[in-house]
Amino acid sequence: DTAVSQTPKYLVTQMGNDKSIKCEQNLGHDTMYWYKQDSKKFLKIMFSYNNKELIINETVPNRFSPKSPDKAHLNLHINSLELGDSAVYFCASSQDLHRSYEQYFGPGTRLTVT
Amino acid sequence: GDSVTQMEGPVTLSEEAFLTINCTYTATGYPSLFWYVQYPGEGLQLLLKATKADDKGSNKGFEATYRKETTSFHLEKGSVQVSDSAVYFCALSDNNAGNMLTFGGGTRLMVKP
Predict the structure, then answer these.
(1) How far is B113 from chain A (nearest CA, A)?
(2) I need a labelling partner for A110 at 20 to 30 A (CA). Which of A22, A23, B78, B98 fits?
(3) What is the 8-class DSSP label of residue A39?
(4) With contacts defined as CB-CB under 8 Å, which chain B residues touch A31?
(5) What whole-number distance in Å separates Cα of residue B64 and Cα of residue B45?
């Protein structure tokens, strides 16, 4: 069974559109995350979400909004897509917020904005 | 703020060669340190971790020791295989709100037969 899954795996869309990426974890974890990996492989945290508490990275544009219907799901909505949003987006989860717990990553969603 | 610096790649080695990938960090507190590996087209997998000074993390022949005095967490393997070819990321988690990981820039390793 896949621990952290994401859909879709690939997403191609035009500038100005609104899109969503879904993430589900079956590990029973309390905490979930979204990361962005750019074309140079650099990874940057976007959000952390723990038991209905959202921790926002201040550098993320407000066009990006995470939504968590329950503890096992954390979806990422992106409004008014821009060329610079093209990247691979990774969802991850961890047992809880303690710094010693490793994070488990999904396979990634490659977003291409044309 | 927190930061992680790791050696730039690519690192190209022959099979059975010794591997070292350097990683140093800056953190305000007492972070946990991690090495993640990303195989082509896949997500990140935890390779090993250390949560306090002098801890040694190890897995699949890879090792790294948490050195607080030099703020380092260098990755080593005695004999690399072609299947080790991947991108390796050093990361830390400090006592920040949200347990967000700070990653280094990644080091691509290519192992030739």
Answers:
(1) 25
(2) B98
(3) T
(4) 99
(5) 16
